[in-house]
Amino acid sequence: MERISWNQYFMAQSHLLALRSTCERLMVGATIVRDKRIIAGGYNGSVSGGVHCIDEGCYVIDGHCVRTVHAEMNALLQCSKFGVATDGAEIYVTHFPCLQCSKAIIQSGIKKVYYASDYKNHPYSLELFKDSHVQVEKVELVQVSIHLEQAIESNKSND
What positions does the entry give for Zn(2+) binding (predicted)? Predict the structure, then answer.
């Protein structure tokens, strides 16, 4: 069985985090990594203790759900809350970051953004990333489920 790459591993982690999303419109996950170690993760959802979109529907103003904290912001806020430095880190996001999250990523000192799916890619985000020397790379997620099934079967046969 062939091993998945580090990029695939961290992107798979972001997709797993997205399964915790409480947003009905788009499930997004983000994983912040430094030196091949996960330092934080986040998914899009309501503020802690708040009403969830999956329970009462999205609260949409001007085409945006204002109830939701984005996955990237949740991951960055976890770092802030627990005193974890993000300078020089990388972030893996299931979807291209919105303009506000792009600015927060830059301000946090993250130097590389990996994303799996295009989603309203704002041209100004790309310009800001370029001007701030933040590398951006699209990483398609391989079918990790196939690798998981192979690993499970392999482990069963070794029992």
Answer: 70, 98, 101
